[in-house]
């Protein structure tokens, strides 16, 4: 049977925690404990504190256990909280201590919620920083080295050749057999540039052809012709006067 001191403590606790407290037996109670003064939007956290009062209570510590009811809490955190409660209980041996234990637990839960919120915020900031760095690296591009350029050039040339071959194939498919034959012949003829690169003496040959086709003008013949015409004109004038 519970002592008068314990019954009196139960009455006080039931008035303070009318909805949170459940009496399991004459010496056992369960209280739902939430953090105090948590920020709006913080993660929900709710624990069930079970207290068993030995006959020697309050001269000895009550048996305590914690069970998560809502929210995430590691087993290690549960054990740390129980050790904190036992330390507080030892400081209050000889007195009714349940209210003090619950108040301390609420403070510790509030601290845990704040720590969790801070870790969550730091994690989000790290993720944002990582995404930003990846975006900056993507837009900035990779530094080009000779090796990376040659590798890119080889891949680019292969893709270009493949695309041209595919286009060539599509073009040939659209032609008649005769057109294909003529087209292939035209492709095998060397271009002017190929001829030039094959025999660079062609340029010199062209220059010699230009020189061979040049017409030289003999200005002395022009002068003699002009003098002859003037002489004939003078003779014609003298004949006219004799008439």
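^ structure tokens above, recovered residues below v
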């Amino acid at each position: 049977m519970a002592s008068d001191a314990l019954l009196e403590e139960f009455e006080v606790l039931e008035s303070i925690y009318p909805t949170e407290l459940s009496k399991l037996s004459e010496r056992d109670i369960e209280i739902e404990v939430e953090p105090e003064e948590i920020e709006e939007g913080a993660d929900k956290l709710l624990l069930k504190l079970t207290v068993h009062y030995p006959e020697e209570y309050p001269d000895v510590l009550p048996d305590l256990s914690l069970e998560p009811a809502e929210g995430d809490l590691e087993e290690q955190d549960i054990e740390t909280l129980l050790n904190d409660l036992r330390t507080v209980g030892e400081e209050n041996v000889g007195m009714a201590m349940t209210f003090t234990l619950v108040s301390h637990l609420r403070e510790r839960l509030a601290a845990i919620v704040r720590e969790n919120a801070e870790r969550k915020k730091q994690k989000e900031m790290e993720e944002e920083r990582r995404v930003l760095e990846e975006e900056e690296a993507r837009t900035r591009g990779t530094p080009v080295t000779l090796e990376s350029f040659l590798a890119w050039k080889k891949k680019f040339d292969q893709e270009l050749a493949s695309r041209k071959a595919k286009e060539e194939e599509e073009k040939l498919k659209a032609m008649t057999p005769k057109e294909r034959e003529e087209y292939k012949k035209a492709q095998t003829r060397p271009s002017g540039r190929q001829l030039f690169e094959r025999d660079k003496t062609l340029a010199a040959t062209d220059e010699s052809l230009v020189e061979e086709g040049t017409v030289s003008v003999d200005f002395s013949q022009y002068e003699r012709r002009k003098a002859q015409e003037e002489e004939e004109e003078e003779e014609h004038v003298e004949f006219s006067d004799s008439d």
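The CA atoms of residues 203 and 209 lie 10 Å apart.
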